[in-house]
Amino acid sequence: MSTSNPFPSLNLSAGGGSSSSTTFQSPNVIPSRSSSIGHHRDNSLNASQSPPPKSVLRPVPEASWLAAGSSSTDSTMTPANVPGGSGTVSPPPGPRSPDTVVAAGISCTAGAHTSALPQPLSSNPVVGASSSHQHAHSRSHSHTRSRSRKASIISNLNHTSFMAQMPTAPPVPPDPSRFGTDELPWGGKTWNEDKERILTGPFDYLFAHPGKDFRAQVINAFNAWLDVPEDSLEVITKAVGMLHTASLLIDDVEDSSLLRRSLPVAHSIFGTAQTINSANYVYFVALQELQRLKNPKAISIFAEELVHLHRGQGMDLFWRDTLTCPTEDDYLEMVGNKTGGLFRLGIKLMQAESRSLIDCVPLVNIIGLIFQIRDDYMNLSSPEYSHNKGLCEDLTEGKFSFPIIHSIRSDPTNFQLLNILKQKPTEQEVKRYAVTYMEGTGSFEYTKNVVHVLIERARKLVDEIDDGRGKSGGIQKMLDKMVV
User: Fold this and answer.
1) Quick one: which of 49, 221, 298, 399 has the fewest CB in 10 Å?
2) How many CB atoms lie within 10 A of CB 299?
């Protein structure tokens, strides 16, 4: 009986019967699978009855593979390492590990040998010859998408290859013997502007928000008499300004102040230790500035007045911390050292650089007293002062200012104000009560009268020094501003 092969796709032998070289369709048909694009593909014998789906898989010539992989040195991109040899299959859409390339294919052949590697699509009997004409139709559609996927895979492989080539050897340990021969960074050899800004940060912060710059006004007013060379005057003005700003940084730390010129104090921003170091550093930078004068007197004047400044500050702190009320004379001595020190420093330096023989020190001593006593008065009574430094800050600091000393000594049997200072109050109600108490003892009126008397004394001394030269206008205007 002549038999014809009713199932040509199985490639049955024409000899009939069973043969070991003939592969028959398995009774356990491979279940339906989905392609990489989600299309259903039937492996049954009736697959040829429905049109095959459009495939995203296509053969790629070996030349194209080599061209696509030429930009990468990673060995995983060579055709020999990709299943299928010169052919390849585009990976399915979706995330894939960056260091993995998968080539998928289905092989079903009749014969004695079945390859474990995927075959080109044109020879795949499951896809069948019927899909070959569909491949040409979908080539233009899948070409762009396939190129994009390849570029992504190559990029990921390059990244993985780079990471794999990172050096893993530990760093070479430093050689201690270099300290025996290398030039060491002594002193300021490696100092730079960035490091300088770190040290001067607190100083720069306060210096950027200047006050009334009263000391510069004093220097300019006295220069009408002393006629200091412009270069020297610039150095003196700069040095005095640096010393004044640095001393304010220290004052705010020692007084536990919260505000300075309506802003948070520097040590609240930079810290106490850094602020103290910055202020001390600027003291010596100011000394270096004065060395530009090349005047031996300048160094001795600097040392003398800085000693006076710290003496006055030390006594002020002692009275506060021991709750000791000083006498008025003790107070005037303290102010002459602490506040008057920087005023005298500027005027003495000007006299050292001037050809004039006028002695302005007695006048500047009185101006220093006027300035501090007036400041004590304003601290307890001026709304503007309260805005800049806080309401009655001297009470919060426990400071024995001029009106407070007068009020306590006006009635030694009443300890209310002394006890308020001991508490260092922050409550406004307590502070207002203390102010009312001092008003009752006449301390504010007394302070105003003292300021008035000192201003008149200063005016008389100005007239004596000027001696009809007509150069006292600047100082007289300055005294006018100090009237309360």
Assistant:
1) 49
2) 13
Q: What share of the chain is helix, strand, coil (3-state, %, to 5)?
A: 60, 0, 40
Contact 244, 346 (CB under 8 A): no
380, 401 in Cβ contact below 8 A?
yes
Transcribe 297-355 into DSSP letters.
HHHHHHHHHHHHHHHHHHHHHHHHHHT-PPPHHHHHHHHHHHHHHHHHHHHHHHHHH-S
The single-letter code of the amino acid at 273 is A
What pLDDT is recorded for position 187? 72
Q: Of 336, 335, 330, which is closest to residue 376 (Cα–Cα)? A: 335
> Degrees (nearest 5) of the Cα angle 318, 320, 321?
65
Q: Residue 170: its pLDDT value, please?
A: 87
- pTM of the complete model beyond 0.70: no
Burial 58-83 (b: 16+ CB within 10 A, else e): bbbeeeebeebbeebebeebeeeebe
172 residue type, one letter: V
Task: Quote the tokens at residue 212.
Answer: 């009334």
CA distance 107 to 114: 8
Mean pLDDT computed over 113-122: 44
φ, ψ for residue 248, nearest 5 deg? -65, -35
Q: What is the pLDDT of residues 458-480, one digit of tens each?
A: 999 999 999 999 999 999 999 99
Q: How many angstroms separate the CA atoms of 182 and 177, rounded? A: 9
Q: How confident is the model at residue 75 (pLDDT cuts 50, 70, 90)?
A: very low
H or E segment at 105? none
What digits encode the pLDDT tens for the residues 269-311?
Answer: 999 999 999 999 999 999 999 999 999 999 999 999 999 999 9
- State the DSSP string of 45-88: TTGGGSPPPPPS-----HHHHHHHTTT---GGGSGGGSTTTT--
Q: At what angle do helices 230-254 and 214-226 cross, to 10 degrees?
A: 150
For 435, other C-beta atoms within 10 Å of its C-beta total 19
